[in-house]
Design brief:
By secondary structure, the protein is α/β, with parallel strands linked by helices. About 40% of the residues lie in helices and about 10% in strands.
Length: about 240
């Protein structure tokens, strides 16, 4: 994949399989994904909204996305597509496309953060929680993973770090990523990190404060401390 590859071409990648039955198939998978992407970029967060958006902009617009039918795909069609899509492959393709678009442009900072996707909470399904790696200098997300209900962001961060270019980068995040294994993985991959220590890690916090409060090695203690010791020993002040 190179920098000239369009997102519509990414949606046509054979690795992204359409799991619907071929019989009666009316709307190509790339068209559905492209229409949904454009709709989401305008702020739409529901399948019904995607259908309304596709119909509102007309057939000519949908043909630009590869549509072959007069009407936009229905909510039922969208539901079948999204239930059957391989999320891992989809995320991999998007990640490859983003990195190809970025090319060799340098950036130093990667921020890791979790968020709950808007509009993802239904009557029966829990909200979708994502962990994303964001390149602040580029203004783009490098990769993201869905945080499974059976795991947590700490474990997901280890998986996310495994697919990121860490060498020469500074990784930041909030206190939930301040763990020995996360820091070790970043260091092993050639990166650095700036992570906070909070009250939920009292031992680590105490060690940091002790190291920062101690006088630098090889330097004399402060003058006040010297005067105090001299006074205790009965020596006159100078």
């Amino acid at each position: 994949m190179d920098a000239t590859t369009t997102l519509l071409e990414v949606f046509r990648d054979p690795r992204l399989m359409d799991r619907r039955r071929a019989q009666g198939l009316r709307h190509p998978l790339p068209t559905i994904l492209a229409l949904t992407t454009v709709a989401i970029l305008t702020g739409i967060t529901s399948q019904r909204g995607v259908v309304q958006f596709g119909n509102a902009f007309g057939r000519a617009f949908r043909k630009l996305l590869g549509a072959t039918r007069y009407k936009a795909p229905s909510e039922a069609t969208l539901s079948r597509v999204f239930r059957g899509i391989d999320v891992t492959i989809f995320e991999q393709l998007i990640r490859e496309w983003i990195q190809a678009r970025l090319g060799r442009r340098d950036f130093e900072h990667i921020a890791i953060d979790g968020k709950t996707a808007r509009g993802s909470r239904g009557e029966e399904l829990p909200a979708v929680h994502l962990l994303a790696a964001y390149a602040s200098e580029m203004g783009t997300a490098l990769a993201q993973l869905r945080v499974d209900a059976k795991t947590n962001e700490h474990k997901a961060a280890l998986e996310l770090l495994g697919i990121l270019p860490l060498r020469g980068k500074v990784i930041t995040g909030d206190g939930m990523f301040t763990h020995r294994d996360v820091c070790s993985e970043i260091g092993r991959r050639g990166g650095d990190y700036v992570l906070p220590a909070k009250d939920n890690q009292p031992t680590l916090l105490a060690d940091i404060r002790s190291a920062l409060d101690a006088p630098p090695t090889g330097l004399s203690p402060p003058a006040e401390a010297t005067l105090c010791r001299e006074h205790q020993n009965g020596q006159p002040h100078r």
